Amino acid sequence: MPAGTYQQIRLVLVPNSAGSLANSVVPTGGAEQALDTPSAVQSGIKINRPFTVAANTLTDLVLDFDACKSVVARGNGTFSLKPVVSALPSVVSGAVTGVLAGAPGAQVYAERNGVVVKATVADANGNFKLSPIEQSSTAGNVDVVIVPTSANGRGTGIVRGVPVVASGSTAVSTAALPITLPSSVFRTVSGTVTPASALATIRALQSTGGGTFEIAATAAASDTGAYSLFPTQAALPAGAPVVGTYQTTLPILLTADLTAAGKYSIQATSSSGTVSTQQVNVAVGDVVQNFAF
To answer: What Pfam family is a match, any one (predicted)?
Structure first.
């Protein structure tokens, strides 16, 4: 392709056919089924990310598909594709690594200003790696947010101000010095968004340690508007989050913020960009919170 600066990439999906599913999902305990792809998606997934191609050189881009936010459940048991894809030149990206004690399967996010820029899941031994993340020199440091599963029975941990170095890796903990989070019970926030055609996304945000952080997110069902954080297991720790600031010498001290225990802002955003936010407290039980657009 000609040398120059490009503003956008478009991914064109291979269509499903009668004999082969190119776009599908396998629900837990279920069989493979086709993903419904709206006409706007069929014409191509637009990724707005400027990048430069120099003459007679190879430019590497990493395309990051967020499956958790891209596959949207419907009330009738089917699924639709609402793609969330980002692109990042590999030469300006780095990684953040760590090890958790007693929290296999925990969700781990790298966030900037409360927005998730990379997410992963801790493996069976508690190891995690967030990569690729754009370097701090061009995008700023990240906050690492750790949200164990309800099966772990542990609360949220946040490490603020973690630097990201191009082609490098920053450790927030190690196998010898893992992050151990305090115990916590978990709660669910659920409800209905009306009208369902709003196609809302739902985020649970928690303010602590001088910032606001995404703890969980989901999408309302496109046919009924129903949502739950989460339907199969409670997603929100009711206990106090522990927060600390990155330092090169490990371990990083994490301190409990008792004033934030159980308190969340539930934010619904419609497909048109309208935002509605409600405050909830899950300290004593599950909460039902509806939204109307």
So the answer is: DUF4382
Q: Are 93 and 166 in contact (CB under 8 A)?
A: yes
Angle, alpha carbons 21-23-25 (nearest 5°): 95
Q: What 3-state class would DSSP assign to 126? A: coil
- Cα 196 to Cα 43, 201, 222, 249, distances in angstroms: 24, 11, 6, 49
Model confidence pLDDT, tens digit, residues 86-112:
888 777 889 999 999 999 999 999 999
CB proximity list for 10: less than 8 A, separation 6 or greater: 44, 45, 46, 47
- Tokens 């966030």: give the residue: 111
Q: CATH class for domain 186-237+262-292?
A: mainly beta
Sequence-distant (≥ 6) Cβ neighbours of residue 70 within 8 angstroms: 81, 82, 83, 84, 85
Euclidean distance between CA atoms 35 and 22, whole angstroms:
9
11: tokens are: 């991914």
How far is C-alpha 149 from the chain's CA centre?
14
- pTM comes to 0.86
134-168 tens-digit pLDDT: 999 999 999 999 999 999 999 999 999 999 999 89
Please, what is the Cα angle at 68 between 134 and 222, to 5 degrees?
130
Residues 6+ apart with CB under 8 A from 17: none
